[in-house]
């Protein structure tokens, strides 16, 4: 190795790992400090090139960082989630309160003491915690942050008129502290590029496609005019992270145009966060309008998390909120994701723990599977599929997308070629889906992509699907056709699960909570099986643009299929 040259291990185009000895040289060379005890706590994520540097921040500038403290009893938390979510378990539906979750996972007294003392020795005292005491959000100057986290250098970056503050280099912490932290938020992860709902022109030219509306969805999924919410203790929510906002006037106009055949609400009951000004986002309009027209007449919340400060990570802010609110809607739908390989395993593992905390409380988290099919990652001369997170988390329900076979009629469904799906490269296949996924792999062996493209032992997704093609949306008071994406199918499924929750609650049954263990035991009961079509993959000689294909029963494009509401209601009311 040449003098003053780092032996950098390239793990991907966006991540770099420095060994501890190299980090010490790095810090001595660039900070002037000689560090003897450092431990790198996660992989450094390079900022995407579309974020333009705008200079180093002033040393006196205020930053806000989030410290994820190591939790206790994570294995017990996972076992508790399995028991309360498995319909064959005596503990099924016996969800925990936030206080009980806090007692289970609260960081040890030693962890809290070490982290607080570490912060206090750097003069940091302006911190907020959450009820589970496993997150600290602290304000400090950039100068103090750089001293606290040797190696960090905070710069401002801009993209599409938005400004964020992130560190341009890797950081570390002293080895007596690292064992008490999962990660520090606000240094490297950036908001993904806004993947607003797609505008896809109809692929057929033989006429005008009227598009998907609430009436079309209710016809296809067998919802009647009486299938609306009535339980007072029922609620649902959507979450937005990419500076997306809905406009109340758009929702009112949408319901006036499309909600005339069923009882509904025309206003959101609660906004958690700050609604920005300016134009409404197509994504936000889509989410709110379709969860409220499918889950009609049900109290709806909107979590809007642009981040109060340039160093905040909106998705992480939402997770922190869930750890700090005792009364929450039962169903949450989220159209958000990153490439798995752009995130550190430590970060994703901790986020999975947050999903488990929600699940044991009886909350159902639904994530869109993404709009890139199987995805594609280019590794030199070889390609692999590219799974998305949180879609690949074993602890959420992931929703894929479909299209009508005949784009002009309410017919049976085939795959939507953009529907995200595949196999995690990080998380192993959970027990609840092993039988279903192995059955798929055996039944389509002859037509599977080469195994070098995917991890056959990873968490497979999606779990179910709904129509994701050619929706009508009202945004900025204008009716807009041809809106597509799994950001459409996810709130539709969420609305139907909210209706089912309402029926369960009115009968004295608990909310559905984490749905997957029960969903996979149903083995397709209550769902329309989707057996035609494939989704996108790598555009190369081996797979020629094709990922996976639909098949009878479960498949990694549409999961178990799309809801047949009365049959699914019957299946999920049995206990």
Question: How are the secondary structure elements laid out?
Answer:
Blueprint: E1 9-10, E2 15-17, H1 20-31, E3 38-39, E4 44-45, E5 52-56, E6 62-69, H2 74-85, H3 98-105, H4 109-121, E7 127-129, E8 135-141, H5 142-148, E9 154-159, E10 162-167, E11 173-174, H6 175-178, E12 181-185, E13 198-199, H7 214-220, E14 235-240, H8 248-258, E15 270-273, H9 282-294, E16 299-304, H10 314-322, E17 331-334, E18 338-339, H11 345-360, E19 364-368, E20 377-379, E21 382-384, E22 388-389, E23 397-404, E24 413-415, E25 422-428, H12 434-443, E26 458-461, E27 464-467, E28 471-475, E29 478-484, H13 486-506, H14 516-522, E30 527-528, E31 534-536, E32 546-549, E33 562-563, H15 565-572
Parallel strand pairs: 14-16, 14-17, 15-16, 17-19, 19-23, 23-27
Antiparallel strand pairs: 1-2, 2-4, 3-11, 5-9, 6-8, 6-12, 7-8, 9-10, 13-29, 18-22, 20-21, 23-24, 25-26, 28-29, 30-33, 31-32
Helix pairs in contact: 2-11, 8-9, 9-13, 13-15
Please characterize this protein's 3D structure.
The chain has 15 helices and 33 strands. With about 575 residues, it is of the alpha+beta class. It has two domains: about 40-70 and about 105-185, no CATH class; about 215-570, Rossmann fold (3-Layer(aba) Sandwich). Strands 14, 15, 16, 17, 19, 23, 24 and 27 form an eight-stranded mixed β-sheet that branches. A four-stranded antiparallel β-sheet has the order 7-8-6-12. α9 links the parallel β15 (about 270-275) and β16. Its EC number is 3.4.14.9. One of its GO terms (biological process) is proteolysis.
């Amino acid at each position: 190795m040449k003098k003053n040259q780092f032996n950098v291990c390239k793990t991907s185009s966006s991540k770099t790992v420095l060994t501890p000895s190299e980090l010490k040289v790095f810090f001595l060379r660039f900070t002037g400090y000689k560090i003897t005890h450092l431990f790198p706590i996660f992989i450094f994520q390079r900022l995407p090139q579309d974020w333009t540097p705008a200079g180093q921040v002033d040393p006196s500038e205020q930053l806000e960082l989030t410290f994820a403290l190591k939790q206790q009893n994570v294995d017990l938390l996972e076992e508790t989630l399995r028991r309360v979510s498995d319909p064959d378990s005596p503990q099924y539906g016996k969800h925990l309160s936030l206080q009980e979750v806090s007692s289970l996972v609260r960081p040890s007294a030693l962890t809290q003491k070490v982290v607080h003392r570490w912060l206090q020795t750097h003069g940091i005292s302006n911190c907020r915690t959450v009820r589970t005491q496993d997150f600290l959000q602290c304000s400090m100057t950039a100068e103090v942050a750089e001293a606290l986290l040797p190696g960090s250098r905070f710069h401002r970056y801009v993209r599409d008129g938005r400004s964020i503050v992130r560190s341009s280099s890797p950081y570390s912490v002293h080895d007596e502290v690292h064992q008490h932290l999962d990660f520090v938020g606000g240094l490297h992860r950036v908001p993904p590029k806004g993947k607003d709902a797609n505008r896809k022109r109809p692929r057929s030219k033989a006429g005008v496609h009227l598009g998907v509306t609430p009436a079309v969805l209710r016809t296809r999924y067998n919802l009647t005019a009486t299938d609306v919410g009535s339980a007072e203790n029922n609620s649902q929510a959507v979450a937005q992270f990419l500076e997306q906002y809905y406009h109340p006037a758009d929702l009112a106009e949408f319901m006036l145009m499309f909600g005339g055949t069923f009882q509904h609400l025309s206003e959101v009951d609660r906004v958690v966060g700050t609604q920005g000004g300016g134009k409404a986002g197509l994504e936000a309009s889509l989410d709110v309008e379709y969860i409220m027209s499918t889950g009609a007449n049900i109290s709806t919340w909107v979590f809007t998390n642009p981040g109060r400060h340039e160093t905040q990570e909106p998705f992480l802010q939402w997770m922190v909120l869930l750890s700090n609110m005792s009364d929450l809607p039962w169903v949450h739908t989220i159209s958000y994701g990153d490439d798995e390989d752009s995130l550190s395993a430590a970060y994703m593992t901790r986020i999975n723990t947050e999903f488990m905390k929600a699940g044991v409380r009886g909350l159902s988290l639904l994530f869109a599977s993404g709009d890139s099919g199987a995805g594609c990652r280019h590794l030199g001369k070889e390609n692999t599929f590219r799974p998305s997170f949180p879609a690949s988390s074993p602890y959420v329900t992931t929703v894929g997308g479909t299209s009508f076979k005949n784009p002009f009629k309410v017919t049976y469904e085939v795959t939507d070629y953009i529907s995200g799906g595949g196999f995690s490269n990080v998380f192993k296949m959970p027990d609840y889906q092993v039988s279903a996924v192995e059955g798929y792999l055996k039944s389509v062996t002859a037509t599977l992509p080469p195994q070098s493209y995917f991890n056959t032992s990873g968490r497979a997704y999606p779990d179910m699907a709904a129509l994701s093609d050619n929706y009508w949306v009202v945004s900025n008071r204008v009716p807009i056709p041809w809106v597509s994406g799994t950001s459409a199918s996810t709130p539709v499924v969420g609305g139907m699960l909210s209706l089912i929750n309402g029926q369960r609650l009115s009968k004295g049954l608990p909310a559905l909570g984490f749905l997957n263990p029960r969903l996979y035991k149903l083995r397709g009961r209550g769902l329309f099986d989707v057996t035609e079509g494939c989704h996108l993959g790598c555009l190369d000689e081996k797979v020629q643009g094709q990922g996976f294909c639909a098949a009878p029963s479960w498949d990694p494009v549409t999961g178990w299929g799309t809801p047949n509401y009365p049959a699914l209601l019957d299946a999920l009311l049995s206990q």
